[in-house]
Amino acid sequence: MLSLRSDGSGVNGTSERASKAAWSADGRSVLTTQLDEHWVPSALLRLDVDLDGGGSRTVWSPPAIEGLGIGSVEDWSRDGARVLCVEVFPDHGLRVLDLGTGESKNLGDFEESSGRWLPDGRRALVRVSSQLFLVDVETLEQKLLLEKGSNT
């Protein structure tokens, strides 16, 4: 069992292994990837946090993510319906995962990337090395915002 405060501090360890985590918009839950004894992603782990800092454990494993190796959860949408996550196998890249249906969509050829939702829930800011992209998660249209070495 993990114990943590709603500000993310005071995490007390367990034998559970988890990767990078994302807070829900309401600050009541944390979503992360559970790792097995070989540090291989095995399930999504949600911790519901009470105001005193206690956490209870819920494991999600939607059918569509079985076999999809989610290495880390980057960001959780404000409506709680989708997450941006990094897939580590069978492919590498940034994906959008629908928590209700388990369906996922690759956002493009973004290896070694991270992402954050924009407040509109339709677009994501994606960092790849020293570049920043704005990506429409429905149409997959990409716009380069900042290129390595650019001062403008």
For the sheet with most strands, the description reads: 4 strands, antiparallel
| Overall radius of gyration | 16 Å
The overall strand count is 12
Strand content: over 45%
Number of DSSP helices?
0
Strand order of the largest sheet: 1-2-3-4
Model description:
The structure is a single chain. The protein is an all-beta fold. The chain is 0% helix and 50% strand. The protein has no helices and 12 strands. The strands form 3 sheets. A 4-stranded antiparallel sheet has the order 1-2-3-4, with no helix packed on it. It has a 4-stranded antiparallel sheet with strand order 5-6-7-8, with no helix packed on it. A 4-stranded antiparallel sheet has the order 9-10-11-12, with no helix packed on it. A hairpin with a 2-residue loop joins β10 and β11.
Question: What is the secondary structure topology, with strand pairs?
Answer:
Blueprint: E1 17-23, E2 29-35, E3 41-49, E4 55-60, E5 69-76, E6 82-89, E7 93-98, E8 104-106, E9 113-117, E10 123-128, E11 131-136, E12 142-146
Antiparallel strand pairs: 1-2, 2-3, 3-4, 5-6, 6-7, 7-8, 9-10, 10-11, 11-12
Brief overview, please?
With 152 residues, this protein is an all-beta fold. The protein is 0% helix and 50% strand.
Structure characteristics:
152 residues; mainly beta; disordered N terminus
